[in-house]
Amino acid sequence: MTLDASVTPLEVDSLIDDPATRIIVCCGSGGVGKTTTAAALGVRAAERGRRVVVLTIDPARRLAQSLGIDSLDNTPRRVKGIAPSGGAASGAAASGGDRPEGELHAMMLDMKRTFDEIVETHADPERARAILENPFYQSLSAGFAGTQEYMAMEKLGQLRARDEWDLIVVDTPPSRSALDFLDAPKRLGSFLDGKLIKLLAAPARMGGRAGMKFLNVGMSMMTGTLGKLLGSQLLRDVQTFVAAMDTMFGGFRTRADATYRLLQAPGTAFLVVAAPERDALREAAYFVERLAAEEMPLAGLVLNRVHGSGADRLSAERALTAAEILASELAQESGSEDASEPAGSAPENESKNLDDGGIVDQGGGKTDVREATDASPEAPTVDHTPAHPPAHTPEPDHRPVDSGTPATARPGTADDHSTEQLTAGLLRLHAERMQVLAREQRTRDRFTALHPEVAVAQVAALPGDVHDLAGLRAIGDQLATGTTPPVEAV
Amino acid sequence: MSRLQVVSGKGGTGKTTVAAALALALATEGKRTLLVEVEGRQGIAQLFETEALPYEERKIAVSSGGGEVFALAIDAERALLDYLQMFYKLGGAGRALKKLGAIDFATTIAPGVRDVLLTGKACEAVRRRTKQGSYAYDYVIMDAPPTGRITRFLNVNDEVAGLAKFGPIHNQAQAVMRVLKSPQTAVHLVTLLEEMPVQETADGVAELRAADLPVGKVIVNMVRPHILDEEAVRSAAGDRRGEIAEALAAAGVSGASELVTPLLEQAADHAQRVELEREQRAALNQLDLPSYELPLLSEGVDLAGLYQLARELRKQGTGS
């Protein structure tokens, strides 16, 4: 699928080649390929001469493997096998042949480790030990909702401050609202400035000064209530923790604010990642609006897993009609059990069902889903869509195989038979593909109608997962060119 | 069947949809189910095509046979104030705490308090009885956090009980854990037949089992039909292009010869996917868990699709 003229294409190469681009944040809802997009961008940018670090939040083992690293941890590791692309990237002409050699590093956020590091850096050893051993701290740092978002931003600030890389690509946490990472620094900041902290930290700070007596009464009432709620021992833990952290809070606040400003700075680019599905794009639209409201610079939308077809001039309806014609010919000629296929004689009904939404329950023939799958993992899945009427016969999928192996060199009639079945199968597959295409187009159009200003890059759906640098490179190519590389000949 | 059905899954696998379909499927013959949302995304409201859910239990669907589905989007802050009210009659103090930022602290930053409130509220609904003494809801279905966080989410009360060794919070946390670790609860994991979700499901099952949390079913979502397999495609791509072009032309397709290659490419993609799905299915079988399968609805899930999925779940044994 190519983009319409009405949609601005996202110039990925200009973005990653621009030395002013220092941070790229990939955000979006879960399961849309955010992490893979971040890694592919990292590989491409490095091969085009940038010194890149990719910060991932998602512990995807396979991503580490695809980068040739056994496991990712809290320290950036150099990725081997990054080759300067030179002429390989078609758009590379701009900077000529003497581009600097790029590097790629990758790391995975370890929340607890990051939190510990902050404590170790900002507190004297004795105090640091008190904090690290505090049970309340141990729970807090081990990563309940909210901590991860804050720590991701903290890590980003750290990486930026080290100034070892000229491009940082960040993959955001799979947040419940997908936006928590924007709020986390502010929220923490407002909490740290809040009265509660002062209250909790008060006993340690005030000692027993007589002049503070009045405040002490109010406070002990309050801590009494809290004690009742939390249990006095937990409250003591919290108070010890707060007291120990007291000197560090200012630093937290300052850094949280700095990170937030960093995200708004011109060197930062947000990429919203989505799949062409209703929910993912709704989330993406929300993201676009939210980023605008926060004055965060949006570079564009990356639309992953987009389906295309080299035969898109043949519509789903016509493909199905042709498949029915072939099926009914088969039924007449063979006189086999195929003759009982009920849908073969009613192609019009089929295309009508399609128009109705493709979820028409044809009844019968569908009750054995579990049996089929429980009995054998090899069993073909029972059909669920009316786009495939032969589901009413048992295991139709196997028939072309039985008679269709070229090595067996069957006589002409048998071959004709299976060719028709095979062709009908190809047509049904095509119809299914065209339905997917139409649906994706509609969801995408809805998004672009709402946000015509957002530049879009598309990445084609792959049949399998990405396993290596070559796979990431291929995705990078697609991100940059917006086109699908030719499918290898079968 | 367990009365608390927790539905988790990797992002993008459709766990909200599955939870909603499950709530519909269990609401048969006059039964009442409560569908609980804990992540504040209003996904349930969107699925049922209603306006955003408030923090109150309201009826959102009637199932065939007269069952009723209620829904609740739990708001952590409101749940905390409720909870304070319920246990301590702290109306005024609750407001004071809010002013101090303590509520913000508790619901967004303090370790696990948010998760304690969410799980606590769900367990309260499970245990609640009507004046007549029967259960207020026959089933409570929770649209839970994703697989990566589910064990920690459900286990948070254990951790809290360890932190607060005495007092009401300790007792409440233990009461919740008793429900969650009993056969009254089943944690289902939604997956697709793809590598990453299947891997995450396997990891999730191992974590849940290690934490003694009751694993329910694997629910394979968005299962697509297998139309051609690899051998068929290989055969077709070999010396039979001409025949296929002829068959296409005979079926009234114009320009048939140019279509053969793209059609075969699509078939090759399909065959590769079938093969990958077969591997993933084998990996899921290794988990030795009962499973449900739900079809991919080619038009996406609307309200009618939701009812269709609920029928599918019932056919496969839900609620019986």
UniProtKB/TrEMBL annotation, chain A:
Region (Disordered) location: 78-101, 330-417
Protein name (Swiss-Prot/TrEMBL): Anion-transporting ATPase
GO MF, one annotated term: ATP binding
CDD domains from the UniProt entry: ArsA (cd02035)
PANTHER family xrefs: ANION TRANSPORTER ATPASE-RELATED, ARSENICAL PUMP-DRIVING ATPASE ARSENITE-TRANSLOCATING ATPASE
Pfam families, A to Z: ArsA_ATPase
All copies of domain ArsA/GET3 Anion-transporting ATPase-like, residue ranges: 21-306
Compositional bias per record (Low complexity), positions renumbered to this chain: 85-97
TrEMBL record, chain B:
Stored InterPro entries: ArsA/GET3_ATPase-like (IPR025723), ATPase_ArsA/GET3 (IPR016300), P-loop_NTPase (IPR027417)
Record-linked Gene3D superfamilies: P-loop containing nucleotide triphosphate hydrolases
Start and end residues of each ArsA/GET3 Anion-transporting ATPase-like domain: 5-180
GO molecular function: ATP binding; ATP hydrolysis activity
Record-linked PANTHER family: ARSENICAL PUMP-DRIVING ATPASE ARSENITE-TRANSLOCATING ATPASE, ATPASE RV3679-RELATED
Name of this chain's protein: ATPase
